Amino acid sequence: MSRSTESKATSLRRRHLTGKPGPTNKESEYLEVIYYLSARNEPVIAARLAKWMGVQPPTVTHIVKQLEEKELIRRDNKNEISFTPEGFQLAEAMVRRHRILERFLVDIMQIPWEHIHDEAVRLEHALSPLMEARISELVGESKTCPHGNPIPGNSDFFPGDVRLDQAPSDRYFIVQRIVEEAEEDSNLIRYIQTNGLVPGARFLVSDNSTFGVTLACENKSISISSEIAAFIWGDLD
Fold first, then answer.
1. 171 to each of 166, 198, 208, 234, how far by Cα in Å?
2. Band of pLDDT at residue 20, cut at 50, 70 and 90
3. Could you report the per-residue pLDDT of 70-85, keeping only the tens digit for each?
4. What CATH number has the domain bearing residue 109?
5. Domain that holds residue 39
6. pLDDT of residue 18 exceeding 50
7. Which stretch of DSSP H or E encloses residue 73?
8. Do 208 and 171 share a structural domain?
9. Contacts of range 219-225, beta carbons closer than 8 Å, 24 or more positions apart
10. 115 in any annotated domain
11. What is the predicted pLDDT for the residue at 6?
12. Residue range 48-66, pLDDT digits in tens
């Protein structure tokens, strides 16, 4: 190795060692969840993160502290979590990558709906800028992921502002998006897709009560729990 090459390598190692460390894969997952909750204007607190991630509060406290130390989030006097500018930029880029990958997995690879979230999580941490750019080209100017949620940079508009469990009876409901919590449960996503509760589908809300929601479409009816209906957002027609 020449002296100039050795000097350059030493400089790169020094820069790597002295630079601020980026988030781990687990921390990145928390940043994504914080982004999803923030985008829905919901208070982001440790209890909500623990419920979403399916972990105990001490685990959340530990991760949140690490994200604070890396200056990616901050907490106010109510312990509500918000992004720093750097944290938001990083989280938005990760969400864009995730949703583009889901689009690619469905449109190009023809992977079934129930598998795309987990596969995108596996791939997104190892996706190089070159591969991300190529995948973006392949999916074109798609505005949303397959579940209807907007791809940052392609669209910032959240379609559908009515939650199905709150839709009035005797009105038509057009499905626009499935919120991210549902993606964590592959069986639930399979159930939603099997019953045709996908973006663009139109149903008559024939009954909506504390026991659940009954939908009518093409001489058939579908009954789902209020808990599942809360994951589905759309418009009244």
1. 11, 18, 10, 12
2. low
3. 999 999 998 999 999 9
4. 1.10.60.10
5. 21-83
6. no
7. strand 73-75
8. yes
9. 222/195, 222/196, 222/197, 224/195, 224/197
10. yes
11. 47
12. 999 888 888 889 999 999 9
What's the distance, CA 43 to chain centroid?
17
Q: Is residue 72 part of a domain?
A: yes
* In contact, 100 and 132? CB cutoff 8 Å: yes
Q: Considering the domain boundaries, does residue 55 fall inside one? A: yes
The C-alpha atoms of residue 139 and residue 152 are separated, in whole angstroms, by: 14
> Which residues are CB-neighbours of 82 under 8 A, at least 6 positions away?
38, 44, 73, 74, 75, 76
The CATH number for 203's domain is 2.30.30.90
Residue 229 burial (CB count, 10 A): 21
**Radius of gyration of the chain from its Cα atoms, rounded to whole angstroms:** 21
Under DSSP, the state recorded for 198 is: S
**If you average pLDDT over residues 137-159, what whole number do you get?**
89
Structure tokens at 82: 């918000």
CATH number of residue 38's parent domain: 1.10.10.10
**Structural domain includes residue 156:** no
pLDDT class for 164, splitting at 50, 70, 90? Answer: very high
Q: Which of 56, 83, 110 is the last residue of a domain?
A: 83
Please say if the pLDDT value at position 12 is more than 90.
no
Q: How far is Cα 167 from Cα 169, in angstroms, rounded to an integer?
A: 7
Confidence of residue 4 (pLDDT cuts 50, 70, 90): very low
Percent of the chain with pLDDT over 70: 91
3-state DSSP: the chain helix, strand, coil percent, rounded to 5? 50, 20, 30
Task: Please report, for residues 158, 170, 219, the alpha-carbon distance to residue 203 in angstroms, rounded to integers and kept in the order given.
Answer: 20, 10, 11
